[in-house]
Amino acid sequence: MFIQNAMGTISISKQIISKIVGKSANATRGIVCMSAGVAENIANWLGGNSIQNGIELKETDRGLDIHLNVTIQHRMKMPEVCAVLQSNVREAVEKFTGLSIGSINVTIVGVSVK
User: Fold this and answer.
1) What is the pLDDT of residues 63-84, one digit of tens each?
2) Cα–Cα distance, 63 to 53 (Å, whole number)
3) What phi and psi values does residue 29 have, to the nearest 5 degrees?
4) Which helix (H) or strand (E) is 14 found in, with range?
5) Where are the domains of the chain?
6) In this structure, is the dihedral angle defined by the CA atoms of residues 79, 41, 60 and 18, taken in order, positive or negative?
7) Thinking of the domain 12-112, which architecture would CATH place it in?
8) pLDDT tens track for 23-39
9) Single pTM value for the model
């Protein structure tokens, strides 16, 4: 991920952005964990894409698209938890990196009863 300014270029690795996203997700009430799932891991490994801990980042014309695979806590309202998650991730990534966010898509891959 590159940011161009008057003095040059700033490069931010996908690993750093993934850590920011992951910390924001873990701080969101109702999110238990993030997981890419076995099928997605195999498909992305074969396809050369990178998913780390349920986080996929893609650069687009609109900005950075973020896709999250999450497990949520049982009895939580899924749409509300996901809306707060999207807001938290957008705020954190924009605040820390200055990157434009295109979209934040969330897939619920599990529900935890613990």
Assistant:
1) 999 999 999 999 999 999 999 9
2) 21
3) -60, 130
4) helix 14-26
5) 12-112
6) positive
7) 2-Layer Sandwich (3.30)
8) 999 999 999 888 765 45
9) 0.81
Cβ atoms of 17 and 57 within 8 Å: the answer is: yes
- Do the bridges between strand 101-112 and strand 63-73 make them parallel or antiparallel, or are there none, so unpaired? parallel
Are 86 and 52 within 8 A, CB to CB? no
Assigned token pair, 42 = 């195999």
Tokens found for residue 80: 């509300």
Tokens read off for 88:
């938290």
DSSP for 16-85?
HHHHHHHHHHHTSTTEEEE---HHHHHHHHHHT--EETTEEEEEETTEEEEEEEEEEETTS-HHHHHHHH
Per the document, the length of the chain is: 114
